[in-house]
Design brief:
Distance between the termini: 46 Å
Largest sheet: 2 strands, antiparallel
Radius of gyration: 14 Å
Length: 59
Amino acid sequence: MQNFIIDLALDVIEDPIAFGQELDHVVGVVEHGLFNQMVDKVIVAGRDGVQILTSKKAN
């Protein structure tokens, strides 16, 4: 048996909760990397430096 890790380059995901739920129901998909409703803060590093994004609901 083989397992595969697939990376997707997507534009904006309009409804990440619905997209995550859809992935949860795809046969063979074990896990995805969408952390919907699990975090209040995200640290993003890129060419322009580091950004800290905080959920509006966390405030």
